[in-house]
Amino acid sequence: MIHNSDAMPIWFDLAFLALFGIGLFVAIRWPRLWRSVRFADSSNWPVMPATVEEVNVQPHYRRSSTTYTAEVVYSYQVGGEYYSGRYTAESFSEEDANAIASKHPRASKVQIHVNPAKPEVSDLIP
Q1: 3-class SS string, the chain
Q2: In the chain, where the domains are located
Q3: In this predicted model, what pLDDT tens digit does every residue of 15-43 receive, in sequence order?
Q4: Does pTM top 0.85 for this prediction?
């Protein structure tokens, strides 16, 4: 029987794989996680009308995959002041990203939640 004292125990390999998997999951889901933290209370904010100013879909080419970002830029008014907001959604499907963009054409009216304490913070109601 050969005993190699330099070999790593199996639990070390499993722990590394688990941490790598968690890190990969967080990296892929980061925009969605960040959005859920930032806008956690947005459903309790007042609903206001907004106008879509710009819509686009951008591909992001990576070594082994392509993702697509749908972006909707909108403007709104609170207390006589004009503000703008940005809604982004990432997808591995160009079709899904285009569906989001086509749902919100330029110059269309949309509904948003506006933070009453910080009217510059808003969330598009998808």
Answers
A1: CCCCCCCCCHHHHHHHHHHHHHHHHHHHHHHHHHHHHHCCCHHHCCEEEEEEEEEEEEEEECCCCEEEEEEEEEEEEECCEEEEEEEEEEECCHHHHHHHHHHCCCCCEEEEEECCCCCCCEEECC
A2: 8-38, 44-124
A3: 777 776 676 565 555 455 555 555 567 78
A4: no
